[in-house]
Specification:
Blueprint (H helix, E strand, L loop, with lengths): L1 E10 L5 E8 L3 E5 L12 E7 L9 E8 L4 E6 L3 E3 L8 E9 L4 E5 L3 E3 L4 E10 L4 E9 L13 E10 L2 E10 L17 E9 L4 H15 L10 E9 L2 E8 L2 H15 L1
Parallel strand pairs: 1-5, 4-6, 5-8, 6-9, 7-10, 8-11, 9-12, 10-12, 11-13
Antiparallel strand pairs: 1-2, 3-4, 12-15, 13-14, 15-17, 16-17
Helix pairs in contact: 1-2
């Protein structure tokens, strides 16, 4: 199955963001929710990315293409967890996303967690191109498998790469390649006892290095009361990923906990 999603935005006559075009093939679908209050920018258009499929199967490929026009704001999220189903050896599923943001645009993209079932194999890429005065909030959560089904670290591999560029110059890159049967991940220096990995990137191409450093301190102070560092359930940290970007990473024992951390961080960032 080869599924495609193409989405563009525009400003309507009242200055609000709306969908300029939206094309998709089954099982994908996008629904805008103009009446919903977003957890990020108040003027952002909320839209939900849905799928009627039980998950990604062997040979599946999903291509997602998103373009934000100048001064538009989009909050995009998914309907449910993305499940990569078991598949025969020498097969895989693929998901490729391309995002382009024009001047003064804002995007918050917070998909539900990715769950890798036993013998699953997935290759996914995300290419994001930014211009001046853009703001991007990008979140991702990956689960090691269905823990209650005794599928912890039982998938074949995950290859996930995120590339973000600004003015056609590389800004930052994040590359994950997990092959648990070849290189165990539940060991010291890797995931250890944790089963879920979360990452949130924030990029503001109008911000200076000093402003990002100040924002990091603000977020760290704001999260500490609710998410103290000394505990046995999760581990998180925040760092400057580039002059105009920061990164929050967290490890945990369940997806809901990490969703709360990323959601609270996104609200502070917006």
């Amino acid at each position: 199955m080869h599924s495609r999603l193409h989405l563009t935005t525009r400003l309507n006559q009242s200055g609000q963001t709306s969908l300029a075009s939206c094309f998709y093939t089954p099982p994908l679908k996008v629904l805008s929710l103009p009446a919903m209050v977003t957890p990020v920018w108040s003027q952002a258009l909320p839209a939900i990315q849905m799928s009627s499929s039980p998950g990604l199967l062997a040979g599946d490929r999903i291509d997602i293409d998103i373009e934000l026009a100048e001064q538009t704001q989009l909050y995009l999220f998914t309907q449910a967890f993305t499940r990569v189903q078991s598949m025969p050896a020498a097969t895989e599923a693929q998901q490729h996303t391309s995002i382009r943001m024009q001047k003064h645009s804002r995007l918050c993209y917070m998909p539900h967690p990715l769950v890798l079932h036993r013998d699953a194999a997935l290759t996914q890429t995300m290419q994001i191109s930014l211009t001046d005065n853009c703001q991007l909030i990008l979140g991702e959560i990956i689960a090691c498998g269905r823990v209650l089904n005794h599928e912890r670290w039982d998938f074949r591999y995950l290859s996930s790469r995120i590339n973000i560029d600004y003015r056609q110059q590389p800004l930052l890159s994040d590359n994950i390649y997990w092959q648990p049967h070849q290189q165990p991940l539940d060991v010291l220096g890797q995931m250890e006892k944790y089963t879920h990995h979360a990452c949130l990137y924030y990029v503001n191409t109008a911000a200076s290095k000093g402003e990002i450093q100040q924002l990091i301190n603000t977020i760290y102070t704001a999260l500490q009361p609710d998410w103290p560092l000394e505990n046995n359930q999760y581990l998180w940290g925040i760092t400057q990923a580039a002059d105009c970007a920061l990164c929050v990473r967290a490890l945990g024992l369940n997806a809901e906990m990490l969703q709360q951390i990323l959601g609270q961080t996104a609200r502070y960032l917006s």
